[in-house]
Amino acid sequence: MVQLLADPAHSPKWLRGLVLHEPLSGGHGQLGTTSRVVMEMGQRKMECTETITRREPADLREVPGTTVVRFDREIVGEGLWSAVRDRLTEAGPGTTLWESENEYRFSGF
What we know:
Structural class: mainly beta
Shape: globular
Order of helices and strands: HHEEEEEE
Radius of gyration: 14 Å
Helix content: under 10%
Number of strands: 6
């Protein structure tokens, strides 16, 4: 599951409403990477900048089942700041537990 999350081809499956996710600096999903993200919700489009602030372990190709994978990012857009902290652990054979903590701050509508 973690390998699928790290693959940009699968991003629309995890990010509902995703129209565009393009790295501006760095490599997709890598620590420190800044990306332009465009989301569409109904008739509204929103453009944000996403920065990867934590990715542990750095190499997601062969993660032992007992490892907790941490993937944090900061998202900034017009009137919006958000911090997302994801934790992924193996819950059983072929099953992953994905816990996501989201913090939002709005400065207007």
